[in-house]
Specification:
Order of helices and strands: HHHHH
Number of helices: 5
Shape: globular
Structural class: mainly alpha
Strand content: under 5%
Radius of gyration: 16 Å
Distance between the termini: 15 Å
Helix content: over 70%
């Protein structure tokens, strides 16, 4: 797989996730009076949802640790953008964004 194909795949997956997130979450938020806090807590309504929600939260924490480490150790800049995207729309978009940001700064293609 070439770098170009990898980048295109990351962009496509982040876009697909963002569209799906918007199609699923935004209508539910509108129906519930934009109760963002209630929506977030709904992710813990049952053990299965709680498991997935916990996975997402810990995955964001791992991404934050990675972004912080590489900012200090390798000088990767603008990782905070990925952390914001990791909150809204979600970690899938944030991780894809970080990989794209990182690819431009760490060991660029020859």
């Amino acid at each position: 797989m070439t770098d170009r194909m990898f980048r295109a795949g990351l962009v496509a997956l982040a876009a697909i996730f963002t569209v799906l997130f918007g199609a699923i979450v935004v209508p539910a938020l509108v129906d519930n009076g934009w109760d963002v806090w209630g929506g977030a807590l709904a992710g813990f309504d049952n053990p299965f949802a709680a498991g997935y929600s916990t996975d997402v939260l810990v995955t964001w924490a791992v991404l934050a640790l990675w972004v912080t480490f590489e900012a200090l150790a390798k000088g990767v800049r603008h990782g905070w953008i990925a952390l914001v995207l990791g909150i809204v729309p979600g970690v899938a978009a944030g991780l894809a964004a970080y990989l794209l940001i990182r690819m431009r700064q760490v060991e660029p293609a020859r």
